[in-house]
Amino acid sequence: MPFKRNVRWWLTGLAISCVLFWWLIQPLTLDSLNLADESVNLVNGEHMFYAGGCAACHASTSDGNQPLLLTGGQALKTRFGVFYAPNISTNPENGIGNWSTLEFINAMRYGVSPQGQHYYPSFPYTSYTRMSTRDLVDLKAYLDTLPADSSQSLQHDLKFPYNHRWLLGPWKRLLLDPSPVLELDREDAELERGRYLVEGPGHCGECHTPRNMFGAMDLNAWLSGGPSPEGKGRIPDITSGPDGLGDWSKADISYFLETGIDAEFDVVGGSMVEVQENISRLSEADRNAIATYLKSVNSKP
Q1: Which of 95, 144, 147, 270 has the most crowded CB, counting CB atoms within 10 A?
Q2: Computed from CA positions of residues 274, 278, 281, 284, in that sequence, does the dihedral angle turn out positive or negative?
Q3: In whole angstroms, what separates CA 3 from the centre of its chain?
Q4: Among the listed residues 135, 246, 269, the one whose alpha carbon sits nearest the alpha carbon of residue 197
Q5: 243: Cβ–Cβ under 8 A, 6 or more apart, which residues?
């Protein structure tokens, strides 16, 4: 009798554990979204395209600054393995041409594919999750105007156990957070706009914030720089502290974002070149807003 009772408790515990495990690994998505009032603004969609620097990772060819083919293929080498940017052109088979707006929003906010697979956070949905529905709808509409390409996306080459996507289920439940990183004065429209651009579509923290043992941004050291995610060099501190932009004025930062030239006439270099070129296409008001926000970010000890 005691043996049967123990087996029953063991089986009950196993069943509960299985249900909990299943719950943890399930993707979280929106099942529906009321888009009836979301008319498309292609100008804003293009604006978000450059704010997000989409071409920097996904464009294989360009004509000046205008991307032609969003075929992907660029490699991101990390301690977890090598990630490859996918084809996000309008090709219906190998790109995102067949995606609905809802599927696009689920990918951008929750890192989930139309097939229900978890995306790796090398795709910075950990920042894009803060984007508004308005901007995501417009961005999808703008992407739909760009050329299609049939190139197949490359498969990631990841180490064990990171090659198991189900691990991202509990990772997201623990670390995916759409709330703002910093609490600021919401009555300051310029500061609020700067926060939105930096923390959301601009995903500046993805490179300029150090990462913890789980590969997530350490928000306690927000924008304070750290080792390059690719293992070579160091990404600079862009807080307002003495090791960052403390000596820069807002005008200096805005001018740098526009021209790629700092107050000492040094020219932007490395991977920041494409970032700066994209941001230069934003409005002067948005560049000023970014500068205002960065000057509000205090360095951490």
Answers
A1: 95
A2: negative
A3: 53
A4: 135
A5: 224, 225, 237, 299
